[in-house]
Amino acid sequence: MGDPVRFGLFGTGPWAHFAHAPALAAHAGVEFTGVWGRDPGKAAALADEYGVRAYADAGDLIADVDAVAIALPPDVQAPLALRAAEAGRHLVLDKPVALRTEEAQAVAAAVAARDLASVVFFTRRFTPESEEFLAGAIATGGWTEARVDHLGSIFQEGNPFGASPWRRERGGLWDVGPHALALVVPVLGPVTEVTGMAGERDLTHLLLRHAGGAISRLTLSVDAPAAAAREEAVFAGEAGLLEPPKTRWRPEVALGRALDQLITAAGGGAQPDCDVRFGVTVTAVLVAAERAIREGTTVRLEN
């Protein structure tokens, strides 16, 4: 086993506390080096909890590590990820990678130019159950349609994600939409067309055509009535109906598996399926969906 990979954590919000910090601290292949955050007080508190250094300057932390894990809003993450990649640092990114396709593409280009490893943390993709399901669904093939309903409420008392300004502004399309796309795109193929409609309380409906001809329907919200909350998915086709397995929500364990894949790739192994290139694909679909809803049209994507 080689030397541990020195990691810097960028971000001090709920996701950094629930997933990133505990996963980095627990991983045998990681040297958790330090924390940077936009709030120095929160950065100091999180760093103290794990016995690492709090950095006042993001550039100083980038300079001291081999890789960065970012738990920040997408508009903050994208320029920071680009800066780290241009400095030759491997990337563990949150979804979505960016709010603009061009920004996500710039990060991917910097990663490719320097032969870096990258992984985007689509949480449920990093469970053994999900990996087995996707492998089986892809091998079976013949799917003509899929439906994903991902609705909940982050604005109920006690939910820490409800205080997130970017989630309030962008809603379920950008928050849970990436998870839905991370499920359907590997099975049905790249999205070639998207149209959609938005209703009250952040309710978003998308209709996607995939490269192989299949159609998927996504219903998304992070402000649904409690009685309407649900997470359901089904694929349909020649083999009948297929539903993904239920998985336990343990983000720190899932991130540990993402770190496994990142470290393997950094050592010359295969890149994760959910790398920054896949992150670009997801961002492009979300941008197209936003435009389709705003203009009341169908947007075609180039793949």
What does this protein look like?
- The protein is of the alpha/beta class and 303 residues long.
- The protein has two domains: 5-123 and 251-274, 3-Layer(aba) Sandwich (Rossmann fold), CATH 3.40.50; 128-246, Dihydrodipicolinate Reductase, domain 2.
- Helix content is 42%, strand content 24%.
- The chain contains ten helices and 13 strands.
- The N and C termini lie far apart (39 Å).
- The mean pLDDT is 95.
Short recap of the structure:
This protein is α/β, with parallel strands linked by helices. It folds into two domains: 5-123 and 251-274, Rossmann fold; 128-246, 2-Layer Sandwich (Dihydrodipicolinate Reductase, domain 2). It is built from ten helices and 13 strands.
How far apart the termini lie comes to 39 Å
Summed up, the domain count is 2
Secondary-structure element sequence? EHEHEHEHEHEHEHHEEEEEHHE
Radius of gyration: 19 Å
What is the average per-residue confidence, as pLDDT, rounded to a whole number? 95
Q: Enumerate the strands of the largest sheet in spatial order, edge to edge or round the barrel.
A: 12-11-7-10-9-8-13
